[in-house]
Structure to design on (411 residues):
């Protein structure tokens, strides 16, 4: 380790756990589960590839808590121990290569493609904005019994993953999924104890955390991925996000990952040129967070160069550099960064020229997901793959996947 390369330094979490360096793979939705939502060897192979690449902390994509409510075809769902052997292989494949594997635990709420689930649920029956209603159906408002059931599911899923040997778990509280929906006054207009005030809106995430902590005990790391803001009029604000972070810090959370945006308002779409140049899109918000809490912070979004990563760590505003798309096209990028070198490839916008598709940022998600699938099959990523070809292949695969999922549920 050289004194100048801050990326190589280990990080000790509040509960005493240690991460081997300051690079973390942020969650990317792999959709590499079976059509009945089981773990697959492809997931084990993909994460072994990343672990060999030098990244200290690897956070999985969406592991859902309920087979009735999927975010995409091919999501992994952990409701019980039926996949315990493969979950153990997944965790062991990472840990024996020196990295730490955390599971991101999620419920999509209403953010699920039309036709995939029999219905979608949310804190309130608020539809998506008009130009997205073709893709996303209006949800049904959750009952209080359903809210309590989902809280219990987050906890039981965390318990199974701990038993399987995962190094920690992360609550997905960002990007417009269910936890994020509860936090947002735009999507949560309830007037009971789960809405109506910012305190009531954050009750859901606090109870999810409390139930998970009771299930896994004090020594098992629990983190959260949280929006700095939703970037929508009437949505979740920075002030509200700070209040949630302060409440979670007081409750004992081990790591907070800062991100932003939703499917309706992707954060990267409105990034200023000056912010892009600095690279870390949410660093200004992290600086505000650091003034109020001492919990370890991870910032994801925009990091590309050695200089930006070193500068951000040196400022003390964050503790972990979160990488997503760079590792989807260059799985061993962390080895170069830890050696003080630059990555081989630079992330660039993926566009089809179809305005509606590009504005929703769904094309970029689909394009990068295909690179994960290539690595899951033992192949290398294809950084020059055609966006239009990727779009066509993804649409066909999703239609087939949704049909298979519905047939399996009906049988």
């Amino acid at each position: 380790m050289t004194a100048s390369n801050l990326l190589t330094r280990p990080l000790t979490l509040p509960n005493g756990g240690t991460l081997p360096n300051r690079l973390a793979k942020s969650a990317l939705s792999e959709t590499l589960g079976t059509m009945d939502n089981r773990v697959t060897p492809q997931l084990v192979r993909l994460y072994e590839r990343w672990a060999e690449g030098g990244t200290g902390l690897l956070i999985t994509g969406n592991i859902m808590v309920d087979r009735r409510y999927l975010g995409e075809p091919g999501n992994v769902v952990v409701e019980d121990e039926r996949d315990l052997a493969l979950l153990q292989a997944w965790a062991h494949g990472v840990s024996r290569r020196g990295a730490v594997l955390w599971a991101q635990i999620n419920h999509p709420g209403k953010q699920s493609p039309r036709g995939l689930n029999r219905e979608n649920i949310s804190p309130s029956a608020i539809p998506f904005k008009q130009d997205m209603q073709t893709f996303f159906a209006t949800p049904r408002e959750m009952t209080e019994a359903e809210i309590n059931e989902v809280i219990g599911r987050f906890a039981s899923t965390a318990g199974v993953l701990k038993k399987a040997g995962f190094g920690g778990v992360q609550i997905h509280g960002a990007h417009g999924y269910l936890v994020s929906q509860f936090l947002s006054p735009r999507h949560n207009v309830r007037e009971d104890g789960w809405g109506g005030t910012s305190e009531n809106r954050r009750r859901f995430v606090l109870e999810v955390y409390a139930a998970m902590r009771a299930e896994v005990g004090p020594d098992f790391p629990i983190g959260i991925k949280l929006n700095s803001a939703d970037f929508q009029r009437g949505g979740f604000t920075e002030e509200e996000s700070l209040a949630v972070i302060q409440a979670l810090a007081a409750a004992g959370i081990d790591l907070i990952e800062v991100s932003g945006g939703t499917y309706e308002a992707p954060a990267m779409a409105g990034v200023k040129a000056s912010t892009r140049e600095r690279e870390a899109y949410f660093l200004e918000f992290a600086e505000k967070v650091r003034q109020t809490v001492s919990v370890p912070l991870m910032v994801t979004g925009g990091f590309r160069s050695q200089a930006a990563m070193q500068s951000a760590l040196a400022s003390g505003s964050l503790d972990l550099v979160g990488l997503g798309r760079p590792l989807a096209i260059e799985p061993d990028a962390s080895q170069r960064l830890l050696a003080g070198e630059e990555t081989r490839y630079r992330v660039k916008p993926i566009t089809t020229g179809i305005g509606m598709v590009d504005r929703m940022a769904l094309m970029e998600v689909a394009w990068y997901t295909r690179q994960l699938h290539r690595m899951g099959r033992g192949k290398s990523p294809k950084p020059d793959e055609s966006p239009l070809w990727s779009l066509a292949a993804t649409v066909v695969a999703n239609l087939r996947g949704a049909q298979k999922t519905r047939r399996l549920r009906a049988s």
The CA atoms of residues 65 and 153 lie 6 Å apart. The longest strand covers residues 100-106. The mean pLDDT is 90. The radius of gyration is 20 Å.
